Structure formats: structure tokens, C-alpha cells
Amino acid sequence: MKLYTKTICPKCLWVKSELEAANLQVEVVNIDQDENAKQAVMDAGFMAVPVLEVNGEWLADTHVIMDRIATLSA
Description:
Blueprint: E1 2-5, H1 10-21, E2 27-30, H2 35-43, E3 51-54, E4 57-59, H3 62-73
Parallel strand pairs: 1-2
Antiparallel strand pairs: 1-3, 3-4
Helix pairs in contact: 1-3
């Protein structure tokens, strides 16, 4: 599971904190520091973060991400 973020991104911090609170392991990738990751997010059709990649599925809506976190932590 990967969480794509930016350096200054309140929604990214929120999602990251929810993942940590749920004790879910996630690789956090800052697209400001990783051009290949930024391109991967864009190639997947997204122009904003946070984006959560779970088993090849890309989630970008924060409400959908929160629902998935709840499902994974149950």
C-alpha cells in the first residue's frame, strides 16, 4: 500500500494520521521529492494528492480513502 503525498498538504496529513491510527503499514511517497512517483500518479489519471494505491487500485477521493482505511482496519 502506498500513499502519495506532497510536502504541504493538509488532506495528506489527515489520511496519513488515519492510517497510522489504524495501525496499517503504508509506504509514504512524497511526489515533491520523487519525480517518478509524480509521473506515476499523473499516468494513473490524477492531478492532486493524496492518492492511495492498494493492491493496484488507485483511490483519490478522501472519503473513499477513509472508507477503505475503515475496511482494512476492521
